[in-house]
Automatic annotation (TrEMBL):
<dbReference type="Pfam" id="PF07732">
    <property type="entry name" value="Cu-oxidase_3"/>
</dbReference>
<dbReference type="InterPro" id="IPR045087">
    <property type="entry name" value="Cu-oxidase_fam"/>
</dbReference>
<dbReference type="InterPro" id="IPR006311">
    <property type="entry name" value="TAT_signal"/>
</dbReference>
<keyword id="KW-0186">Copper</keyword>
<dbReference type="InterPro" id="IPR011707">
    <property type="entry name" value="Cu-oxidase-like_N"/>
</dbReference>
<feature type="domain" description="Plastocyanin-like">
    <location>
        <begin position="113"/>
        <end position="207"/>
    </location>
</feature>
<dbReference type="InterPro" id="IPR011706">
    <property type="entry name" value="Cu-oxidase_C"/>
</dbReference>
<dbReference type="Pfam" id="PF07731">
    <property type="entry name" value="Cu-oxidase_2"/>
</dbReference>
<dbReference type="InterPro" id="IPR008972">
    <property type="entry name" value="Cupredoxin"/>
</dbReference>
<keyword id="KW-0479">Metal-binding</keyword>
<dbReference type="GO" id="GO:0046872">
    <property type="term" value="F:metal ion binding"/>
</dbReference>
<protein>
    <submittedName>
        <fullName>Multicopper oxidase domain-containing protein</fullName>
    </submittedName>
</protein>
<keyword id="KW-0560">Oxidoreductase</keyword>
<feature type="domain" description="Plastocyanin-like">
    <location>
        <begin position="244"/>
        <end position="352"/>
    </location>
</feature>
<dbReference type="GO" id="GO:0016491">
    <property type="term" value="F:oxidoreductase activity"/>
</dbReference>
Length: 383
């Protein structure tokens, strides 16, 4: 029987904090994130193909939300937004880390996020995705992996002749005809626009899909922080031919913020749960993802189902750029807290501080009422 499933963490914030003892009568009002409020910035144009925003103040991104497309007539509008992005806002474990400017997608009236919203469809649907760039500052397009679509809907401006300019809208028809977990992203000046945050997950549930006890979407990415800083008007230079990643994220956050109950994406389980993880690589480097003390089975790659006869257990799966690996495991370990991280160990750092970066974790509910878990929550900013 399915117990709960979502993109962010599997339990509510109240359940999460109640288990740690951080939630009480006097603590309830203080259980907010410590993300700093937007500050005024003076933006000057950068010497690149696209000019940064002239808006003097910006809000912050929110965590990616799942959009059930079937519940809204298989239609969604993605707006382009210029916002700030708090990767790890605490002064702990190598923080704070913040991008002064990202280009985020906003689904309908939800909040903008990096990664963008998780667009979830059912096999056989015909999805209408409107890219609303009416308040944008640069040209954009949308390209969807994992869909056999009409030529004009491929989203590549140089081969389709379609570019959504600032002040314009365009609707793409995306058939949900390849079941599985996929990626979407802007395909205008792709080398910059993905690196500014314009990417997200496109999920197509096959007919008769049975959800597991727990299900999570985890998008990993490495960043060169010079690009968002340059686009925000700072006096730095970025060369895509000399890209030097220095920030490493899971769902847009670096550890320990990845374990935050609202802002992060902890994998919360109970003993015996069947867990399904959709790992998506939106970066430009391969990331070998390793889960401690559990055995993973790769069941799907880029929407292709792995035949049962070809499946085997492992604890590392190497996800190449733009690849999607769906893995499953049973929560049958000694109840505790177990890291899941990139095994390029320099990717598990915040600057020179270790551990941090591209590190999340499996948290057993049975282990949440422990001193070490409460300490981790303090580091993550869950007060």
């Amino acid at each position: 029987m399915t117990k709960r499933h979502d993109a962010a963490g599997g339990v509510s914030r109240r359940e999460y904090l109640a288990a740690t003892g951080l939630l009480g009568g006097s603590a309830l009002a203080g259980c907010t994130t410590t993300t700093r409020q937007p500050a005024a910035v003076n933006v000057q144009p950068a010497n690149v193909d696209e000019e940064p925003t002239s808006t003097p103040t910006r809000g912050y991104t929110a965590p990616p939300q799942e959009v059930d497309l079937a519940a809204q007539n298989d239609e969604v509008t993605l707006r382009t937004r210029h916002v700030r992005h708090a990767v790890h806002p605490e002064e702990t474990m190598g923080g704070p880390i913040e991008f002064p400017l990202v280009w985020a997608f906003q689904a309908d009236d939800r909040e903008p996020s990096v990664p963008g919203p998780i667009l979830r469809a059912r096999e056989g649907a015909e999805v209408k995705v409107t890219l609303d760039n009416t308040e944008g500052h640069a040209p954009h397009t949308l390209h969807f992996h994992g869909s056999r679509k009409a030529w004009k809907d491929d989203g590549v401006p140089s081969t389709t002749g379609i570019t959504v300019m600032p002040g314009e809208k365009h609707t793409y028809t995306i058939p949900a005809n390849v079941p599985g977990t996929h990626l979407y992203h802007c395909h205008f000046q792709t080398h910059r626009h993905i690196d500014m945050g314009m990417y997200g997950v496109f999920r197509v549930d096959p007919k008769g899909y049975e959800r597991p006890d727990r299900e999570h979407f985890l998008t990993v990415k490495e960043w060169d922080s010079r690009l968002p800083r340059m686009m925000a008007g700072e006096d730095v230079e970025f060369d895509p031919r000399n890209r030097r990643p220095d920030v490493f994220t899971v769902n847009g956050k670096s550890a320990p913020r990845t374990l935050h109950p609202e802002d992060g994406s902890p994998i919360v389980v109970k003993q015996g749960d069947r867990v399904r993880l959709h790992l998506v690589n939106a970066g430009y480097m391969s990331h070998p993802m390793h889960l401690h003390n559990h055995r993973l089975t790769l069941v799907e790659r880029d929407g292709g189902v792995i035949p049962e006869v070809a499946r085997y257990q492992m604890d590392v799966t190497n996800v190449a750029p733009a690849q999607r690996h769906t893995v499953e495991f049973v929560a049958d370990a000694d109840p505790g807290i177990y890291p899941m991280h990139c095994h390029k160990v320099d990717h598990v750092m915040n600057g020179s501080f270790y551990p941090g970066g591209m590190l999340g974790g499996v948290v057993y509910e049975e282990a949440m009422d422990t001193d070490i878990f409460r300490e981790l929550m303090e580091y993550a900013g869950a007060r």
